[in-house]
Amino acid sequence: MTSPALLPPPGRRFRADPDLFPPPPRSARHRSRHSSRLLRLGEQLSGAAADLLALAVPVDCVCCGAEDFELCAACDRHLRRLTRDPFRAETGAPALMDIGGRVLLPVVAAGVYREELAQALLSFKRHGQRQLRSSLGRALSRAVLAAAGEGQAVCFVPVPTSSAAYMKRGFSPVHLLLAEVARATPGVPVADVLGKAGRAGLRLAGGQKGLGRGARAKRVRGSMKVCRRAGARIAGRRCIIVDDVLTTGATLAEAARALHQAGAIVTGAVVLAATRPPDAAAAGADASGAAEATMT
């Protein structure tokens, strides 16, 4: 069911998608095409520079303040504990439920947005630290595997970042985390086909923090589209949307609308963190149950 462009031929390594590895913040050409060898070299140089910087500039754990670690061993263990059991989270997102309580888009979350998970994700989105990227990527991979289920042919579609957010950060958090998932779990097909519609990325510069359901829905309505010439890659294919944080669900609903319009079959979504814990019924469901429900 997946496109040959998304999966490598038998016996060959997965070719990295340039969209998943943006260049340094000072470069604005984050959509340019580079060879995989150049991408690997850039990754190695970036890692070496980060190690040298750690020697020259002391760092503290973003959660507890322990020296010399962006995320100390104890806080990393707490983060794994918070994300070890992915759960269904759409009941806490009003935009993904109709007035009768029917699920419009199933969502699997790695954890609840609190404690070490919230602190690590916030720090990662501000600075994109290498160690946080690895730890959060592992957490997201558990939710991705739970949502995909056994033997299901699906591709994962990252939610696009706005132009203003990209210029501020120099990277897309969702793309970097999904790249970690693909690296840790070979064979995970990624289809980076969503983009901002027109100049929506610039109009949405203010972000959505603090906005209610209606304001969020109005802010993102019509803001996404499937990129030109990418429609054929996903038409008729089963897709799962990937985002970092679930609040009201307005962003995921808009992404699903754009994919449906392009002919894709959206079966669910995956997020790293949900701002609301699951209700009593959802809390009792295990990860396998979440996966089965998501893919039906």
From TrEMBL:
Organism annotation: Arthrobacter nitrophenolicus
What's the protein called, per UniProt? ComF family protein
Q: State the residue spans of region: Disordered.
A: 1-35
Phosphoribosyltransferase domain: from which residue to which, for each copy?
A: 229-274
At the top level, the lineage of the source is Bacteria
Q: Where do Pro residues bias regions lie?
A: 1-11
Query: A Pfam family this protein belongs to?
Result: Pribosyltran
Give the family from UniProt.
Belongs to the ComF/GntX family.
UniProt feature coiled coil, ranges = none
